Amino acid sequence: MSKAVQFVGSSDDGNHQLGGSYSIPQDLQNSIRSESTQDEDPDPLQRQMQSRSVQGKQDEYHRRPADANDRKRSLAPAGDESNEVVPPAKKKSRWDVGAYEIPETSREVQKQLVGRLADDLPEKYRLKFFKPSDQKHFAPLLANKPTESLSKSEKQEMSLLLLLLKIKNGDSASRKASMKMLRDKCSDYGPTLILDSILPILLDRTLEDQERHLMIKVIGRVLFKLGGEIKPYTHKVLTVISPLLIDEDPLARATGREIITTLANAAGLVAIITSVSKDIDHEDDYVRNTTSKAMAVVGKALGIANLIPFLNAVCHSRKSWRIRQSGVRIIQQIGILMGIGVLPHLAGLVECLSDSLTDAHIPLRIASANALATLAQNSYPYGIEAFNVVLESLWRGVRTHRGKILAAFLKCLGSLISLMDAEYAGYYTQEVMRIVKREFSSPDDEMKKAVLLVLQKCSRTEGVTPRYLRENVAQDFFKNFWIRRTALDRQINKMVVFTTVVLSEKIGAKFTIEHLLKPLRDEAEPFRTMAVAAVSRVVDLLGTGELDERLETRLIDAMLVAFQEQTNKDSSIFKGFGIVAAAFDKRMKPYISPIVSAILDHLRHKDAIARQHAADLCAIFIPVIKNCGELDILNKLNIVLYESLGEVYPEVLGSILGALFTAVCEMDLSIIQPPINQILPTLTPILRNRHKKVQLNSIDLIGRIAALAPESVPPKEWMRICFEMLEMLKSTNKPIRKAANDTFGLIANAIGPQDVLVTLLNNLKVQERQLRVCTAIAIGIVAKTCGPYIVLPALMNEYKTPETNVQNGVLKAMAFMFEYIGGMSQDYIYFITPLIEDALTDRDLVHRQTGANVIRHIALHCSGAGYEEAFIHMLNLLMPNVFETSTHAIVRILEGLEALSHSVGPGIFMNYIWVGLFHPAKVVRKAFWKVYNNVYVQHTDSLVPYYPLPSEDVYTVEELDILL
Fold this sequence. Notes:
Number of helices: 50
Helix content: 55-70%
Distance between the termini: 75 Å
Strand content: under 5%
CATH superfamily of the domain at 160-276: Leucine-rich Repeat Variant
CATH class of the domain at 160-276: Mainly Alpha
Number of strands: 0
CATH topology of the domain at 160-276: Leucine-rich Repeat Variant
Structural class: mainly alpha
Mean pLDDT: 82
CATH architecture of the domain at 160-276: Alpha Horseshoe
Largest sheet: none
Radius of gyration: 39 Å
């Protein structure tokens, strides 16, 4: 017990004598300390300022990083003269020694508690973890009361809490079993006990996303089973689930909508409306917003027509403007959720909103205009008749309002114009354009977005002519929106670019590009990037047919300036340049020389980003240069790219390899410079680079050379590349493994499969599973490329090796091979039957599983080819494996049996199944019914002639009467 007692501030260095601590009475010491702390208290003003600060409002945990530097030990060397002189640390005195305080719990008790929470609970209940915050929710489980002393209600509570704990913290198997048991027994527990246990857990702030997801899933399952019993608890469930509708995660939002739909179907519309009656008038806007989204989900679930009377009453309520705003929001959310499905109910919903446009409260008018705009956008291009009742109010508001209200009304009117006939759309567009042009110079972001939306909608209507847009709109649009400030706002930037593209459909590519040449040469890089994005999209949409030679020259020059002046990592500039060059195609010939000079200059730039962009642009330009017939320039580019293969930055090297790949694909390899036999040996050491982009591009380049010019490289070099590429099969990146496998097939086709096959077969002996699987795939690809008659003897010979990994690898390779060669498999059925027989009778489960996979591919490809006797033999060997319990194995076995049902026919196949369907043992019946269900799905009509027809009312199974 003496070890547990510690005196705060004591030390073992002998500097503090025990007798010194009694030189002053304890009461006097405490009074002196209290007086000193009172003198150090700040004045009330400082205390108030401290409480209002952000750090003052934080708890101790979040305040810790702010002053952590003050408590950290200095790491500066003692002899550093540049540091400031640090005053010596104050020596501890007996005044600093605090009195002993008895802890709330002893160390032994704390150790026992931690041990019990960390060890006993997970072992007892098969939990993965048990957090300290779980103690308050699952406290009855920690009490360890004897079962005999518990009442019936306490036993139910303990049972429910145990199921919830296993669902929340258990492993996968216990979680699934507990979920199933809770779903089956939820009617016994009742809604009161279930919700009183789950809802506090969901409201816990320390709950992690995965745990919250599981608890919400429990609520969804429980609601479905409880049905109408959930009515009294509707408000509680909505309070917990509604915040999911505004979650950032789309999966969480979908889950929330699903649960609210289930709740609405179970509780009914009356119970839902009764429960939310207070929330739609709540002072907190957050509560009103979530309630509106929840009611929209309820409307979608129970029918909009049933909800319209409620919405009409809410939107015309005289009690509070908050109630009316909630009704307007519900209508807006209904439009978002229903999409075009809102069309049959459009008239009723618009009627609910008709009076809100002239309401006295500004937020309500804005919300009404936004709701109408949402309805109009989702009902496009129909439904203009339903909006006639609000058109006059909208038009009057557009002419009288200013600021944010005008922005909302303009957005709404623009959405309605797109629904009108050409005559009315032209009239309203000309009228509204006066207001839109007036607001072009508005500094308000919301007004800018509204103006851009109106421009997009109006310019697409038939009543607006290109001449009107050029003379009255486009000039002011480019003047006010194509400015540097717009490029800095990402959202408005994208809207301006899109609006420019939409306008260009009417005003033409030539007019648009003429006004974008100045931004292309601007000093501000974000502005240039924005202009390149707009030009590339306009050219991609409309082409370059209407551009004259002068404008063509100016555009190429401006794009080249934008590329040369780029300093950031944005890839849109060289991609846009490539789009423009591809559109000009052969018209680019006069400009090839200066562009290639700029590319070569950037390939030697000191900045790695500039070199990378130059290589990427080179890859885009190589097809254009070829179409222009400039082969000398192409060879010059190839030489520079080849000389750049010593690049140290992997991103740049990957782009250079990509450019070389494009060159090899586009050029005649007999005249390419440098020659292929010089390029390929240089790529061999690059294969050791572990960067994903470098590996993928280098493998693609090697595969292209192997496909187009295999004879230009000696076989020894190809084998060296094969050995290097074996390491690629270990890659964690699937595209790299896939490209390596394809390249093995191309190399085998180039130099013959024997040497490559020896290399791959040796690779089957390694321990790493992924490497063996990829090797098996590569062998299958080699068989497909070079013919199975070369590969199959080697595989069967390798199967003699008495090693499990090798034999499994051979079986996997055969499975992939028969999958790839398709109908050619029928020539080798009798050849490989003994091998499959050995695999299916092996003690190793993986052998039988892989053998079933081989049978599946052979049986599917050779169905109806006349080899039924071989497949019946395979069926005799495979059928006993139907009782396997391993998940992976039984899936493969069932797939093999399903394939054999196609090869031997359903009649013969069902002779193996009938007896097992009515076997007295449940395990046997379960296995055979699983097979029967699969066959029934595949051969529904073909099974009709083969059903047994008992001659008497009593069906007898003869095998059951046999006496052993």
